[in-house]
Amino acid sequence: MGPFCSASLSSCFPASFPLLKLTPLFPPLRLTRLSATNQIRVSVLAQAREWIEDAQSIAVLTGAGISAESGIPTFRGPGGLWKTFRPEDLASPEAFARDPKLVWEWYLWRRERIAAAEPNPGHRALAKLEAGGRQFTLITQNVDGLHRAAGSRNIIELHGNLWRVRCVDCDFEQEYRLAPSAPLSPRCSCGGLLRPAVVWFGEPLPVAAIDRAIHAAQHCVVFLVCGTSALVYPAAALPQRALAAGARVIEVNLEETPFSQFAHLSLRGKCGELLPQIIHVPPCPEPRK
Ligand code: OAD
């Protein structure tokens, strides 16, 4: 098999990656900003904290929402990138073939915003959870590198990394921080165009990354879904896989998502506020005999 799997980036449910059919095992507890009384809020947060503290293995899926509090725009909410730009003009192989300079301009603009950003308490809470010593995998759809900057280490970047480039013609790939004065269509030593090493619409995800992510989702005790609209597949299928494998799944999001009804706990609020509350200097649990 080549370096990529057949599951390509898609907002619908591609035939090659069918949506698992799931029904909630019991009514999920919901924490909504407007309707939850303080008492319910406190007990739901306590439940989430307890599950996290007790879990020997945790996997996390993050999306653009976790970086929103660092000043990085999301894609679909108010002010989201896809409200202003069309993905087919800027985030597809066809767009790059048509106008590489335009695509690079957009990525350089995004790089500038990200370069000015710092990890926020949500990123840092997840890094602290990993540092607690349990089995931990952080799967992110974000290309901004803020999880690494916060101290997370076992990271799967499903959609690539905006600070890396790869050649359209050969295997070359490496980190590349373009100087502001650099030409807008950088080239590889083989002569091929260098492009941002991110996954674009219609492209397959790196097979090793999605395989590792599926393995982590299916072998964790707790699966956290943070700041993602849960609309883009195959990433959006990971929480469903975790549920089907028996994990306790906790969602943290400002809004309800298509996945919310399936989560065991669905917490409404900002990652930067809720994650530090449910990740509370966790003791490293003893392995079960
Ligand atoms: P979206 O923009 O689709 O969704 C962001 C989610 O974060 C929404 O559900 C918001 O409600 C939530 N949110 C916003 N601010 C939040 C906060 N402070 N705390 C908690 N939740 C918050 O972003 P993704 O789900 O990451 O792909 O989008 C998935 C993929 O679609 C991206 O990786 C990108 C995009 O097209 C590529 O560009 C390849």
Order of helices and strands: EEHEHHHHHHEHEEEEEHEHEEH
Bound molecules: 2'-O-acetyl adenosine-5-diphosphoribose
Distance between the termini: 39 Å
Helix content: 25-40%
Q: Give me the side-by-side strand order of the main sheet.
A: 2-12-11-10-3-4-5
Tally of alpha and pi helices: 11
Class based on secondary structure composition and strand pairing:
alpha/beta
Radius of gyration: 19 Å
Describe the sheet with the most strands.
7 strands, parallel
Principal-axes geometry comes out as: elongated
Mean pLDDT: 85
Strand content: 15-25%
Number of strand segments: 12
What's the CATH architecture name of the largest domain? 3-Layer(aba) Sandwich
CATH topology grouping of the largest domain? Rossmann fold
For this structure, what is the CATH homologous superfamily of the largest domain?
Answer: TPP-binding domain
Number of domains: 2
The first-level CATH class of the largest domain is given as Alpha Beta
**Which spans of ≥5 residues are poorly predicted at pLDDT below 50?**
1-7, 11-27
